[in-house]
Amino acid sequence: MNVKTIASAAFAATMLASVVAKADVEFKPLEQDPESLVFGIISTESTSNLKAQWQPLIDDMSEALDMEVEAFFAPDYAGIIEGMRFGKVHVGWFGNKSAMEAVDRAGGEIFVQTSKSDGSNGYYSHIITQADNDKLNSLEDLLKCDGSLNFGIGDPNSTSGFLVPSYYVFAQNGADPKECFKTVRNANHETNLMATANAQVDAAANNSEQLARTQMNKPEVTEKVKVIWTSPLIPSDPMVYRKDMSRELKSRIKAFFLGYGRFGDVEGAKEVLANNSDGMGLFMESSNAQLYPIRQLALFKDKLKIQNTEELSDEEKAERVTEIDKKLAELDILVSYQ
Fold first, then answer.
1. Following CA atoms 78, 214, 164, 151 in sequence, which dihedral angle do they give, to the nearest 10 degrees?
2. DSSP H helical ranges for 31-172
3. What is the pLDDT of residue 334?
4. Can you give the pLDDT at residue 21?
């Protein structure tokens, strides 16, 4: 690494430190490497489905590392984040929004990201409704905001289920879900999809991965829904580990993921990946830098919320917006270093 690269990396790290908000609580440091690893899995759908998808990879990971690797499930995303913060989860699969929380508040560090079997490295957030619902065909129909519709949104730490629609669907259109709809309920992707298919809600946030997975396993469900909005491309899901584990252990974990499907039993690994989610491809190297656009989204949403609130004076609004604009400018610089 040359001097210019080192200087650029140091500058980027300093800039990022000023962008990231100080955590409300300190994460509990690990006193030493764990004797066995706990692999956290965010609750995008039922535990039984997630276990069937991830257990084969976890078993292969355990064999490759020659140490026990145990799966950990929680009823919501926060459970995995808090598990990592208190040293109960050492490595795991996250979405970008939950990974941002793990990095900022739980001592996490992104080291690889998932990809699709076709080599693509992203997915999309959707708004769905019933296929036979002739009254909902666009965002304009959804955002009539007359209090007549029941809406399903994702877990607050979900990227595609919450952060992305919160910004692109609601914030950019000056709509508050709580004021717009009759009811708003939080649930995981699978639950929101089933609730929409069964007309328990009029519309819901979802994503392309869940729709593809359900199309593969339960096509009769996806036939009951239609997509009325699609987001810009979202970066593929990151894998996060505790940054205070030893360099040696982190290197072994990272080597396992980057080698999975490339070395050893290539066909067996690719079959495991193909049966995970909607057809997962090889893992790709990544870092905390993949969160830059997610941080921008979160800041943009906060900025619009401040500008639209009536509780703050014009002076207070200007002060807070100026601080957010400063952080956004710093993120623009960070993006230019990628």
1. -90
2. 47-65, 77-85, 96-105, 139-142, 164-165
3. 85
4. 52
- Residues in the chain predicted with pLDDT less than 50, given as ranges, are 1-10, 22-24
CB half-sphere exposure, 153, CA atoms < 13 A: 21
Cα(327)–Cα(295) distance, integer angstroms: 9
HSE of 324 in the Cβ direction (CA atoms, 13 Å)?
19
pLDDT per residue as tens digits for the range 136-177? 999 999 999 999 999 999 999 999 999 999 999 998 898 999
Spatial contact of 242 and 30, defined as CB atoms under 8 Å apart:
yes
The pLDDT of residue 70: 98
Single-letter code of the amino acid located at 37: L
**Helix/strand/coil percentages in the chain, nearest 5:** 50, 15, 35
Report which residue type is found at 82.
E
Contact between residue 88 and residue 38 where contact means Cβ atoms under 8 Å apart: yes
Six token digits for residue 260: 């999975």
3-state secondary structure 241-256: EECCCCHHHHHHHHHH
Give the count of beta carbons closer than 10 Å to the beta carbon of residue 215.
14
Backbone phi and psi for residue 263, each to the nearest 5 degrees, phi listed first: -130, 165
Tokens found for residue 298: 């979160």
Rounded Cα–Cα distance for residues 237 and 214 (Å): 18
Tokens 């009254």 locate to: 135
State residue 7's pLDDT score. Answer: 44
Length of the chain: 338
- For residues 238, 243, 248, 253, the Cα torsion angle rounded to the nearest 10 degrees is -20
* Amino acid letter for position 110: I
Nearest alpha carbon to residue 93 among 244, 337, 257, 220: 257
Residue 127 is predicted with a pLDDT of 98
159 in Cβ contact with 97 (< 8 Å): yes
pTM listed for this prediction? 0.82
